[in-house]
From TrEMBL, chain A:
Organism taxonomic ancestry: Eukaryota, Metazoa, Chordata, Craniata, Vertebrata
InterPro entries named in the record: UTP4, WD40/YVTN_repeat-like_dom_sf, WD40_repeat_dom_sf, WD40_rpt
Species in which this protein is naturally found: Onychorhynchus coronatus (Royal flycatcher)
Protein name, UniProt field: UTP4 protein
GO biological process: maturation of SSU-rRNA from tricistronic rRNA transcript (SSU-rRNA, 5.8S rRNA, LSU-rRNA)
Single GO cellular component term: 90S preribosome
Pfam families assigned: WD40
Automatic annotation (TrEMBL), chain B:
Entry-linked SUPFAM superfamilies: WD40 repeat-like (SSF50978)
Protein encoded by which gene: Wdr75
Any single Pfam family the record assigns to this protein: Beta-prop_WDR75_1st
Tagged with keyword Amino-acid biosynthesis: no
Keywords per UniProt: Nucleus, Repeat, Ribosome biogenesis, rRNA processing, Transcription, WD repeat
Example of a GO cellular component annotation carried by this entry: small-subunit processome
Keyword Secreted recorded: no
Region named Disordered: 769-807
The protein's name in its UniProt record: WDR75 protein
SMART domains on file: WD40
Amino acid sequence: MGEFEVHRVRFFGLVPAGVRCLACQPRGSRLALARTDGAVEVYNFAANYYQEKVIPGHEARAVESLCWAAGDRLFGAGLSGDITEYDLSRLSAARAADGGGGPIWSMAANGTGTQLAIGCEDGSVKIFQVVPGGIQFERNLDRRKGRVLCLSWHPSDTHIAAGSIDIFRVIDIASGQTVQRIMVNYHVEKVKRECVVWAIALLSRGTVVTADSFGRVQFWDWQQGTLAESHTVSTSAVLSLAVAEKEDSIVVGTSTGATYQLQLLPVKLGGSEKRWVRTKPFQHHSHDVRAVAHSPTALISGGLDAQLVIRPLMEKVQKKGYDAVLRKFTFPHRRLVSCARKARLLLFQFSQHLELWRLGSTRETGKDGEVLPLCRMPEHLVQLKSKGPEHIYCSCVSPCGTWLGYSTASRFHLYRVRCDGVSLRKV
Amino acid sequence: MVAAGALRVVRCGGGALRGARAVFSADSKYLLCASGDFVKVYSVTTEETLRLMGGHADLVTGIQLNPHNHMQLYSSSLDGSIKLWDFMDGIPIKTFTVGCKLLALYTLASAGDSVFVVIPKKGERDTFQLVSVKLTKGAGQDLEAKELSVVLDGVGASPKQIAFGREGEYVVSVKEVNLQVYFFKRKLLNRFSLRAVKTKGGDNQFSCVACHPTEDCIATGHADGKIRLWRNFHHRKEYTYSTLHWHHDIVMDLAFSVEGTRLLSGGVEAVLVQWHNESCQKDFLPRLGSPIEYISMSSDGALCCTLHTDNRITIINSNLRFSRSIQGLIKSRDVKTGLVVDPRTKALVMNGEPGHLQFYCLQSDQQLFSLDIVQRQYIHEAGLKQSDLVKVAFSAQGTWLATVEEREEVTDPELELKLWFYEEETQSFKLNTRINTPHDNHITDMSFRDMGELEDDSLILVTTGRDCVFKVWVMVEDTDPEGKYAQQSVSWSCDFVGSYHNYQATNCCFSEDGSLLAVSFEETVTVWDSVTWDLKCTFCHPPGNIRNICFGRLTCSKYLIGATDYGFLCCWNLLTCALEWSAHLNIVVLQPDPLSEHIAAVSWLSKESSLFVFKPNEPQPIYIQRNLCKEKILLAAFVPRDEPETTGSEKYLWLRRSQLLFLTDTQELMTLSTKPLEERLTPSSKQLAVEESLPVTPFSVLLGKHRRQQPQEDTDLGKLVVHNKHEQASPAVRELLHTPAHVLPSASFLCPIFINSLLISKENKSAEEVANEVEMESEKTEDDSDEEGDVTEMEQEDTSHMELLGEVTCKLSKSQEKELRKIRKMDYSWISAF
């Protein structure tokens, strides 16, 4: 074995972006993830949760909601008010259509993947038809005051549930009218604060599940307008909710970083009466869990601490193997650092700028594990800001340290570095 | 052994209530508790011990109501028998002999005439199995129950580690980190286990289990304070559980409410926690005094009771309010103070709760009073050194109380001597003087000079310490008249310090007239003049240190008795300064009777305690009982009787004026009794009032109470008029007084009746007049309850008729009257059906 100098590089101050939303491909094996900086990532379950694709973010594009429609087409919507379709082969945003209702807070695709519903700032719910080559505005549903924060289609596409502040409502698709409007803060004694319905799900048996900022997960019979069950899972807000495809399990994420599973269990063994029971708590995150997803075999959660956690359900996993392991994606699965070996330079890639550093050096030698004194401190040579609103996709520095290149979704830039005077020149 | 009719050792208090969960009777009026070898019946409303059912030869480990007859009780014991009791009458109905140790008992309504017991597995140590025992229906009283069938293997020994599920469909057992569920119908056994390694300070060991009464949900308590709620446990794989966590240490017991909507848990924190609907919402009932050992619910859900490790029973309302507590002899960790008799109340005084002094009344088996001596918050934490009370002494009249407390530290004990004065106004002791570090080392003994009839300034307190001195404390007048303690005119200060050859002082004792003080210094007994504090003489009986000393009394006051470590009991004559006699006995307890010249000594030899009673002037003991009891006797005390016992035998004259009590190492209080068993039990074996038809709904309870009240009052009147010549309060009045106040009608309504009942009526009052009065009374009640509607009114008419009938037949025999009452009751139910 040769001798190595190990540099402790503690000057790469990357702040990873938190996870904003997750979308499981229905009946598919892919998971789309959007970060707070607008980047979209696609993971493949079948390939061991491999990070397949990364679409870099954009300054003007904050993704609030993602959904898969018409098979494997991925749509995103955000506070910019646009619905964007992503080109997954070219890793870029392909087309954008204006929602026409101000910032979009939520978006949901129907069961067949032919229609998209968006919930807007102005309180409207709009239906878009997914057509080859884009989307087409179809109709407006009943508009009420208050931003629509979450949406959920009934599995048979007849109704849609929309959660708002203090209330949620159920809208009939055929007539476009609100058929039920339920106040969720009715049972709280001191209604000083507003109760935000952060997530909603409409189950096939006519149950509406809401997760609200009072830390409750509530089950409503929307036809009667009655509260069936209420579980206070947390003292802080419940931010996200996802239902398993079989509708026997729910996962919720809270603002304390804990996620909880609720299961539909028989009250008596062999009996037909079933009840939702809060079962397992998981504490994997340190910050808000803004997004959860429920795959057939695992609970997936993403938080503002930029972690993606995949927690397999032991009872659903048949054999012990890779599938039965808890996974945490804590750091980016992309190359953000490139090294000029001869020139002893490091190039760090941030979302909108690059940093070039010279490594420190020492003259002394020592034993294994010893910390050597530096004769020259690491030096910050260049900070290069990218132009335009697009985020940097990849970057590189040549081994000799004289060439430096980066690319965005649309452009490629190459720079020449003069080390003596430390100057840059665009080629 | 002694002949028949001789002295018997009788338990009179204390003992561990820790054998099993308590059981409420079906009408929640009585509470049944296993207490040592006995089953105790308490009244829930008055906290009295109504009955003591003895018959087992060893610890009672389980009590359960007979599911087919709620007037009967099954009890199991380590002696290998199951007994069926009629607890209302206190009669053992049947005894089933199983033949091996029974560690827990469970009954099931669906199991027919089988019960479930936990027995040790044959041939293997420390493994236990749950078996069902078929209780054969036989004619005789003593039956064999040999039909055992194993249900579960490898169960825990504690009764808390097994629970039966909804309608007896399954049984759950927990042990260490394993949980097993056995489904009776499907004959399916599922095992689940938790991780054994302790992660993040958690300890997954199971401690207790409870089953939801209506749903399939199991609650388990764990050693790290977590509660897990298991569901879906008929799937081997898809089982699931949720966790509740509040307790910081082991969960001692769990109980579901009757409907299953609430879960109660308790632990060492002495806090009862109520969890709502299996969610994290919880209510607390804190400050219950001591760690909770068992929790049990009444069958109507109105009450719950917790058994504590110090033998206290707390009864708690369904809205989690403290209702009442039944406390007999509180079990303290260590009775360091010894058994002391309070001269004022004749109560037994010893360590109670940590830092408290308990005053225990022998007659009522209740705690009279608990005096906080240490006056510091007790914090439950393992290994924390707490201040505790170690010595107590009363002055002869009970006006002064001296206490010594120390913090249990080996090297530098923190000592405090406190003197308390009894205040007549507040009827309690008030702290008078506090002396920090009275001695440099542990205080070994303390005594007041007993000169009751003399004036206050003759009161002297002597303390002996391991710092080789004894100190004399006297009262001094306060010289500060206008200070803020102006009214407190006396305080205590040290007057004399004596020592002898730098030996540790171990015991001290005043002679009866107070003129001499004997202090033992290791091997030597020194006798001092209590006026001049001159050393008069010394006695020694080597080898061995002096363990106990005492002076003789009355005619024997010239003798000094001492017991040594090396097993000698010596009697010295103070006049001749010579050894009078000695005996080779390993005396552990030496106790003089304050009212006679007798001295009781208890020896401990080859694992049996023997009692010797002797007079110091005769070397021959007047009474010997070998093998007094199987436990070691730690302490003894003579308690003066209120009135001298009339005993026929000359042999037991020494028991005439005082009662001898022993405290064993299991903190059971025993006494010696000359009376035969039946006679002793008579006062307690009165017939308990039985509610034979159970009220079903709260509404019927309400209505029934109202209905019952009226006939009761009427009978009150009638009976009292007839029987008011009797001196003792009639049972009706007692009933009236024992009924809780909130269920009685208003006082203004009761008052005339009550006063009437106390008046002495004319003898020649005819039955007709009585009847009239009764009718008037019932009319009045009718007016009161006019708005209640027709049905009630009709019933009331009925009542008065029935009452008339009862009046006419009041000269019938009791049994006939009982029959009548039964008929009347049947009549009611029949009417209320309309």
